[in-house]
Amino acid sequence: QEVLTPEEVAALEPGLPATAAHGVYFPDSINVTDPAMVMRRLLGAVSARGASVKQAEITGLQVEADGVQLSGPGVRIKAGTVVIAAGARSRALAAQASDRIPLETERGYHLEFHTEAPLLNRPVCPVDLGFYLTPMAGRLRVAGTVELGGLVAPPNPRRLALLDRGARQIFPRLGSPASQWLGFRPSLPDSRPVIGASRGSSRVIHAFGHGHLGLTLAPITARLVADLIGGRGDPARLAPFAAGRFGR
Predict the structure, then answer these.
(1) Predicted confidence (pLDDT) at residue 234 exceeds the cutoff of 90
(2) CA 2 to chain centre
(3) Which CATH class is domain 49-90+192-243?
(4) Domain 104-187 = CATH 2.40.30.10
């Protein structure tokens, strides 16, 4: 990381208003400007390699002698091995595999504004406002806040208003928000994910609880899970992420 003078901040981000504040720059960081495109390409890649993709709501998980039975409204799927990677909704499925995991939901909000041209060259965090401004494909995303509100409580309009006011302090000429969103970060008390086999059955593999870093840690998590299922991984490496660290 590099500490920047106000002049260096302005050189990197000329779209920001003039400021006397210094900045901290992370030159090796990267960001995604179109998450939907990333998901489409991932879907295409796994399909091209022979994967069968099915979208369904899964509410039931039953471990059997020869596999795992998944069920939901109008669907039943039998598999030899199941990976629970359902984000904040993983807790209920893990419980059906005999794992009581204190997964909590950190709710986060974002607003998006259409932009004719990029207002920023990279994500920027005005630390006194407590959110990130991220340039996306044709829009600016204003995202942040943490709210412990579970999965069913309605969105809190005050959170969205806070983001809107803060964004206009930086860019007063923003139009009305084009979209607003509430998402669920799956988080655990020790800030580490759960990765590895269930205590109830080695046929159930956990891969959830990454908090604010789901996209960032998805590739390495996928590699660890693939190695575990394929018999190539060292289970001892996953001990810090085991479901058993929370007790029964």
Answers:
(1) no
(2) 26
(3) alpha beta
(4) no
Q: What is the CA radius of gyration of the chain?
A: 21
Question: What is the overall mean pLDDT for the chain?
Answer: 95
Nearest Cα residue to 84 out of 48, 117, 120, 59: 59
The domains of the chain are located at: 49-90+192-243, 104-187
Q: For residues 77 and 69, is the Cβ–Cβ distance under 8 A?
A: yes
The whole-number pLDDT of residue 248 equals 62
CA distances from residue 149 to 105, 146, 183, 190 in whole angstroms, order as listed: 7, 9, 11, 19
For the stretch 62-101, pLDDT in tens is 999 999 999 999 999 999 999 999 999 999 999 999 999 9
In tens, the pLDDT along 212-225 reads: 999 999 999 999 99
